[in-house]
Design a protein that fits this description.
It is a single chain. The protein has 408 residues and is α/β, with parallel strands linked by helices. The chain has helices spanning 6-20, 69-82, 90-94, 97-109, 121-132, 147-156, 169-179, 203-213, 241-244, 272-281, 283-286, 293-306, 309-331, 351-363, 393-404; strands at residues 30-34, 43-46, 53-56, 114-118, 137-142, 160-164, 185-191, 221-226, 252-256, 266-270, 343-347, 366-367, 369-371, 382-386. It folds into two domains: 18-56 and 309-404, Aspartate Aminotransferase, domain 1; 69-306, Aspartate Aminotransferase, domain 2 (3-Layer(aba) Sandwich). Helix 6 (147-156) links the parallel strand 5 and strand 6 (160-164). Helix 2 (69-82) packs antiparallel against helix 12, helix 4 (97-109) runs parallel beside helix 12 (293-306) and helix 13 (309-331) runs parallel beside helix 15 (393-404).
Length: 408
């Protein structure tokens, strides 16, 4: 079928993206990985750059587990036993023993009754929120929540949606007080770690507010947190924002296997009843293939590794590298956002200068990601640096040196 009338319309929209600075362009293609050597961590080979190695400081693999031999070996073993793919959605024929074992292990890791796997964390949020939102539900959301939360709320069409300014708990409290007059159910939804800034939600204080207002809502105040950037790489034992916030547990916790755990897929942990309800009602679970059995086996190995003395050592090293980088930015009087997480944003606050600095870093063998509007609010243009446990002190110093050399 011809698309002659549609094509010019799409070209116009692409041109508008280019003119506004929102055009992402072609993906960077990684064609090889060089192992650590000479006191430096892994280096990456890119398509079009020959044999020039690059230091990657834009990866969510906070613990470096995607290259861990034990995790790789676990995936290989399960693939040999079960094959490469699940073959179908789970209720038809696609549930394999590794899925069930992993769900139980994730629930135990987080101290919950049950867990449930999805194809990604994005799909998890899209699959969890709409089944829990009715036409008598108000949803109250942090202004800087991830795109998946925004889209999940839009898909669900709640009775009302309210947005509170980033981390403004006084405004959240006012929204709860007003919503109690009209709504049967309230859902507070927040990121655990906010991926563009590296700061985190005070989940303990949010839970206190939820508990204080709970009796005013016939169907409760429910707190949902997407801690995809927190779980595995944040907290003394990798339990994420709940651990950093004093151990207070939210009602429904969403996280990912594709960041600190180094594999792929998303999951949710909660009570037996909530997980049972979601298994029967969530289309993103019912009608989508699960992660592969091999990925489930690799993820189980990653969770076991994090929950071990070796995992604590990786977390300790990750915190040390994060502190080293933050201290370097402070010495150069460069602006960042205070926090403990390995996401360390360099606030540039200018679109053109951000692009020039990203190009300068790449010219010096450093891969970092510039972020501008609409990914971040206008005036919050930044370069997001992400520390990983496979970074070394020499790697951190190399990146800081490249920043210091920028003149422009």
């Amino acid at each position: 079928m011809p698309t002659s009338r549609l094509t010019p319309l799409l070209e116009t929209k692409l041109d508008a993206l280019r003119q506004s600075g929102r055009f992402k362009g072609a993906d960077t293609v990684v064609r090889g990985v060089l192992p650590p050597r000479d006191g430096r961590g892994p280096r990456y080979l890119l398509e079009g750059y020959g044999d020039r190695p690059f230091l990657r400081m834009n990866s969510n693999s906070y613990l470096g587990l995607s290259l861990d031999r034990a995790v790789i070996a676990a995936e290989e073993e399960v693939v040999r036993l079960y094959g490469t793919g699940p073959g179908a959605v789970r209720f038809i024929s696609g549930t394999w023993a590794p899925h069930v074992v992993l769900e139980a292990r994730l629930a135990a890791f987080h101290g919950r009754e049950a867990g449930m796997l999805f194809s990604s964390a994005y799909a998890t949020v899209m699959g969890v929120l709409p089944p829990l939102i009715t036409d008598k539900t108000i949803v109250i959301s942090d202004a800087l929540n991830h795109n998946c939360i925004i889209n999940a709320i839009s898909l669900a069409r709640p009775a009302e949606k309210r947005i509170y300014q980033h981390l403004d708990l006084d405004e959240l409290e006012r929204h709860l007080a007003q919503a109690a007059k009209t709504s049967r159910r309230a859902i507070i939804v927040t990121d655990g770690v906010f991926s563009m800034r590296g700061d985190h939600a005070p989940l303990d204080e949010i839970m206190k507010l939820a508990n204080a207002f709970d009796t005013l809502f016939p169907e409760n105040v429910i707190v949902v947190a997407d801690d995809s950037h927190g779980v595995g790489g944040f907290g003394e034992t990798g339990r994420g924002t709940e651990e950093v916030s004093g151990g207070s547990r939210v009602d429904i916790l969403v996280a990912t296997l594709g960041k600190a755990f180094g594999v792929n897929g998303g999951y949710v942990v909660a009570s037996d009843t909530i997980i049972g309800y979601l298994r029967e009602t969530s289309p993103f679970y019912i009608y989508s293939n699960p992660i592969t059995p091999g990925e489930a086996g690799a993820a189980l190995a990653a969770v076991e590794l994090v929950d071990s003395p070796h995992g604590r050592q990786r977390l300790d090293h990750l915190r040390a590298m994060t502190a080293r980088f933050r201290e370097g930015l402070a010495r150069m009087w460069l602006e960042t956002v205070a926090g403990q997480h390995p996401v360390v944003p360099l606030m540039v606050r200018d679109t053109d200068r951000t692009a020039r600095l990203v190009a300068h870093l790449q010219a010096n063998g450093i891969l970092a990601t510039g972020l501008g509007y609409p990914i971040v609010p206008k005036g919050d243009d930044e370069i997001r640096f992400q520390m990983c446990a496979d970074h070394t002190p020499a790697d951190i110093d190399e990146a800081l040196s490249a920043l210091e050399q920028f003149s422009g």
